[in-house]
Design a protein that fits this description.
By secondary structure, the chain is of the alpha/beta class. It is 20% helix and 29% strand. It has a domain of 145 residues: FAD/NAD(P)-binding domain (3-Layer(bba) Sandwich).
């Protein structure tokens, strides 16, 4: 049996890292397990609304996040096949004293890297890449986790386990839990591009197209 951790978090994305950082800041021993060899850099989430911005502030990450990201109040959905443009102003409906009246635009992998840097400074936190969860066993006093690693199969034990490993979650699969929700009946593509020109926050700064919409301009 491998080393015991109070909490194991499966998935090295923003959700997993933010959970781990919050726990570690409270003095809890936490270990993040990720199946891949590094944080994935393929295009994914890129816009963070006030509810998420509030969490970043609570964890002391907001100043760095604002320096990295593009602050905006507006974005626009584009549906070319219908000629539809839907402008969205995120300030609508916010309380007058809302401390975060904006959203932040930058890549999910950049946010994950930011949080990981802070997490790795803590002595009670550890991040383990190339650790793929292949088995779970629930006990009255904790969870046994079976892992495939570069050194062979091993096991760890924890008091608690958090599954934050995405839509194709190994944790969800091993627990035989459904992934409820709506599936779009169309394919969508995403890509990343760099611009030599400065970006500005405007309704055209984020221009998703197609159905479902899925694109954004971010600062890097």
């Amino acid at each position: 049996m491998g080393k015991h951790a109070q909490v194991i978090v499966v998935g090295a994305g923003p959700v997993g890292f933010l959970v781990a950082l919050g726990l570690a800041r409270c003095g809890i021993e936490v270990r993040v397990l990720e199946a891949e060899s590094a944080i994935g850099e393929s295009p994914r989430a890129a816009i963070y609304f006030p509810t998420t911005v509030k969490i970043l502030d609570r964890l002391g990450l907001l100043e760095e996040a604002c320096a990295i990201g593009l602050q905006a109040n507006e974005f626009c959905y584009h549906v070319p096949e219908h000629g539809t443009r839907i402008a969205v102003d995120t300030r609508v409906g916010l309380a007058p004293d809302e401390p975060y009246p904006y959203n932040l635009h930058f890549g999910q992998h950049i946010l994950a890297q930011l949080v990981m840097r802070h997490l790795q400074r803590l002595p009670n936190a550890q991040v383990c890449f190339n650790h793929r969860v292949v088995g779970l066993a629930q006990h009255s006093n904790g969870v046994d986790v079976t892992l495939d690693t570069p050194d062979g199969q091993t096991r760890m034990r924890s008091d608690w386990l958090v599954g934050a490993d995405g839509a194709r979650s190994a944790v969800r699969h091993l627990l035989d839990l459904p992934f409820e929700g709506h599936t779009w009946r169309r394919s969508a593509g995403a890509c990343s591009a760099r611009s030599r020109h400065p970006l500005r926050a405007s309704s055209s700064a984020a221009c998703p197209s197609g159905t479902p919409p899925g694109g954004a301009t971010t600062k890097r």
